């Protein structure tokens, strides 16, 4: 799923690069002799993808965890990259302010993962900032009803965790809001 791929790329460290037409899902490869296939934007799936890329760009520019420590080890760590049974990976992006972090939950299968426990670095309400499966982007609409409260149940080496829904072929982004 292209929304998952683009979300995974935007949330990882490093600067972002899209080739012309990638932001709306152009079917053909770019050709310097012709214009982009702008007519594709008259179709819902292409509109949804363009909106997804727009919102990813906004998220990247507005959230310090995604750019402040882009080139340091302190800015990125895996929560779990070994869940081969579910094909789900989770990771943290951290800002210079230690209390400012973002969690990414990526489901690489067409199967929803409900009641999926993810370790989080602090207690609080973890608001869902973006969900690639939202209808706005052409998804099925599965999600986390705006966010999840953490519970003091350890997971992935952390003292708190959330139980979330990972929609099929999706990336979901959470940010902590203190209680």
Structural class: alpha+beta
Helix content: 10-25%
* Fraction of residues in β-strands: 25-35%
Order of helices and strands: HHEEEEEEEE
Largest sheet: 6 strands, antiparallel
Tell me the strand order in the biggest sheet. Answer: 1-2-3-8-5-6
Spans of at least 5 consecutive residues whose pLDDT stays below 50 are none
Overall tally of domains? 1
Description:
The chain is α+β, with helices and mostly antiparallel strands. It has a single domain (1-179), classed as Immunoglobulin-like (Sandwich), CATH 2.60.40.1180. 16% of the residues lie in helices and 31% in strands. A six-stranded antiparallel beta sheet has the order 1-2-3-8-5-6. The chain is globular.
List descriptors.
single chain, alpha+beta, six-stranded antiparallel β-sheet, two-stranded antiparallel ribbon
Fold blueprint:
Elements: H1 2-11, H2 44-62, E1 76-83, E2 88-94, E3 101-107, E4 113-120, E5 125-131, E6 147-149, E7 160-166, E8 170-177
Antiparallel strand pairs: 1-2, 2-3, 3-8, 4-7, 5-6, 5-8
Write a compact overview of the structure shown:
With 179 residues, the chain is of the alpha+beta class. It is built from two helices and eight strands. The chain is globular.
């Amino acid at each position: 799923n292209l929304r998952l791929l683009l979300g995974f790329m935007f949330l990882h460290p490093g600067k972002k690069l899209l080739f012309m037409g990638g932001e709306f899902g152009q079917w053909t490869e770019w050709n310097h002799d012709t214009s982009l296939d702008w007519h594709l934007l008259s179709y819902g799936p292409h509109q949804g993808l363009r909106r997804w890329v727009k919102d990813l760009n906004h998220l990247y520019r507005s959230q310090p965890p995604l750019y402040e420590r882009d080139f340091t080890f302190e800015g990125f760590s895996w929560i779990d990259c070994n869940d081969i049974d579910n094909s789900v990976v989770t990771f943290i992006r951290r800002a210079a302010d230690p209390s400012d972090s973002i969690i990414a939950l990526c489901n690489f299968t067409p199967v929803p993962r409900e009641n999926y426990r993810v370790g989080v670095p602090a207690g609080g309400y973890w608001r869902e900032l973006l969900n690639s499966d939202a209808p706005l982007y052409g998804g099925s609409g599965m999600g986390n009803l705006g966010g999840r409260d953490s519970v003091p149940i350890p997971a992935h080496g952390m003292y708190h965790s959330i139980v979330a829904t990972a929609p099929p072929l999706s990336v979901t982004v959470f940010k902590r809001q203190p209680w």
